[in-house]
Design brief:
This protein is an alpha+beta fold. About 55% of the residues lie in helices and about 15% in strands. The chain has one domain. It binds zinc ion.
């Protein structure tokens, strides 16, 4: 099993991220917990980015000749949503 900087093994190592001693692959740089946390964070960031891309595509579809047809309050709504999502991944 290999996640991020962690790999299975019998070598003792010190996690580069949290300083905890762990048993893993000779070249592992982080403990399993840190590797899992990091992987989850990446997934969250991806879903936020996907949300932004989806909105832009949607706005584009409604546009005519390069102008968007979203009103100001829709755009402010989106900005709030994006800010909430960004708070979650911090
Ligand atoms: Zn760690």
């Amino acid at each position: 099993m290999k996640i991020g900087g962690y790999g299975d093994g019998d070598y003792f190592g010190v996690c580069y991220w949290c300083g905890t001693e762990f048993t893993g692959d000779k070249r592992a740089t982080q403990c399993l917990e840190c590797a899992v946390n990091e992987a989850n964070k990446d997934r969250k960031e991806l879903s936020v980015l996907r949300g932004i891309v989806e909105f832009v595509l949607e706005a584009d579809e409604g546009g005519t000749g390069g102008t968007y047809n979203h009103c100001t309050s829709c755009v402010f709504d989106l900005i709030d949503r994006v800010e909430d999502m960004l708070k979650e991944i911090k």
